[in-house]
Each structure stands twice: as structure tokens, then as C-alpha cells.
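protien #1 (seq + structre)
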Amino acid sequence: MNSRLSDRVADNTLVSSRPSGMKGKIKHRIWASILSLLLWGIIDITVSVGFAPTALALEYNKEILVEADFSGRDLTDSSFTKANLRQSNFSHTNLRGVSFFAANLESANLEGSDLTNATLDSARLIKANLTNAVLEGAFAANAKFDGAIIDGADFTDVLLRQDEQKKLCQVAQGTNPTTKRDTRDTLFCS
């Protein structure tokens, strides 16, 4: 019995000889873990709801993004080289300096987007909606605009093939609400 009593006393001595800060450290780690999980949960909800900070210079090269919604975003200097963006929504999007080299933008909505200095070389903009878009300084050599809606689009200083420029002049009308430039004037239509 004496040995049991001494074991108990020894056990209590061991327990009481633990540094008092050890329980505090364990509690601190538990709270830190809980707060970390809570923070990640808030970030996850924020991203899902769409209030995430704007990501710049993203790469979507060779991606299949049919019917993707990029509307209202800031995609400055991003790259969509050879991406399939058929029927995607880029309305009211900042696309300054974006590369759409050889991208398929067939039936894409680019209404009110800013494509200043964008690369559209070899892009397919067939039946694309470019209403009120600003394409100032864009490089669009070899781009195809068959059936595109260009009402109010600004083509100032856009490098186009002559045959595409003539096709666009046949349907050009309106004035860009942002730049106040007439579409026909920016295309040098006669």
C-alpha cells in the first residue's frame, strides 16, 4: 500500500512539476488553429461569392473556356493565346494589353470592353459583339471579324488587313460613348 501511495504522490509530483506554461501553449495552439480555419473559411466564401481581389496578368493559354464569364473584371496584360473562348462573356472588362493571339472568340461578348493595345492577331472574332468596345492601338492583323457587331466601337490606330477593314466599314455605325469617336471615322471608312 505504501508503494501505491508513493506512486500516486510521484504521479502528482510529475503532473504538478510540469511547467505551468505548457497548458497555455496548448490552448494557444488550439485557438490559433481555430482562428486559422475560420480565416480560411472567410477567404473561401469571399472567393466563391466573387469579392476576391482582382488578379492581374493571368495566363489562360490554350485553355478551353467556352461560355466562360469574365465580365466586369480587370484582366490587364493577361494572356489567352490560342484559347477557345467561344461564346464567352468579356463585357465591360478591362482587357488592356491582353493577348488573344489566335484565340477563338466566336460569338464572344466584348461589349463595352477596353481592348487598348491588345493583341488580336489571327483571332477569330466571328459574330463577336464589340458594341462600344475600345480597340485603340490593338494589333489585329489576320483577325477575322465576319458578322461582328461593331456599333460604337473605336478602332483608332488598329492594325487591320485592308479586306477586313472594308468589311467592317460596311456595317460600321455609331459613336463610342467613352472616347466620343465615330466608328466609321476610326476605321477610315469613305
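ok now protien #2
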Amino acid sequence: MNKQQQQALAARRARQKRVRAIAFGLITVIVLGVSVSLLVSAFSSKTPPPAANTIDIAADMGGFNMQEVRVKAGQPVTVRLTSLDGPHHTDGGGKHQWAVDEFGASVIAPAEGSNLVTFTPDKPGSYTYYCDICCGGRANPTMQGKLVVEA
């Protein structure tokens, strides 16, 4: 190989090295950008702040920890439902629901997690809340409770 061919080969290798370095840099920037974006979205709360009147209710395969909840008519209330069951449960995958049909209130808590629903009960009376995801749903007496709305 003559000197001119060696120089051409060396120049081609140098270009290939630069192209690889630029490609590696671009891939690194893209991966970091996606990672930062995912982290920001995971830690930024888009959930509205709970009402001043927040009720914490826990649910597991055995039922709700509260069988009766009392609230005032016309006042916003937030229910923070926490599922104590893990994702290994075959009946519902560990998710639980808290719902009251008359007020259009429904929230589903993920396995070993929490979720919120805020609503304003406007009619005094006694209403049934329930979980219809697992555990026999509405037919299971432990997966129901009473929401008492006082005037």
C-alpha cells in the first residue's frame, strides 16, 4: 500500500470515529432526555389537592376498614382510598374501588397504592358505598359500607 492509500485509509477511519462519537453522543442525549421527562412526569402531581374534609379509607380482600362514613351535605369531601393488597391477588389484581352511584363518585386504588376522589354530596340521606372490582363485588357485605350525608 502506498503512502497516498495509507493517508486515505487513515482519513476514512478518522471520519468513522467522528461519526461513531457523534452517534453515541446523540443517543446519550436522547436517552437522558427521555429519562428526565419520565422522572418529571412521575414525580409531578397532577392530582388536585384534596378538600379540607379528607377521609382515609383502606381496603383489602377482607373489606373496608370503615363501615360508616359521615359527611355534611353541601360540603366538598375527598375520599383517599388505599389498597392494602398486592398485585399478586388474582381477584382484581390488588385494586379496590370506592363508589357511591348517587353522587357519581368512584375511585380505584392501585395495588398497594392510593387514589383520591373529591365530590360534594348535596342530598342528605344514607347511601351505600361499595367495591365492585373483586371479592364478590356488591354482593359481599364486607365490600360495602354506608355513607351518611347529614343536613
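The chain has a mean pLDDT of 88.
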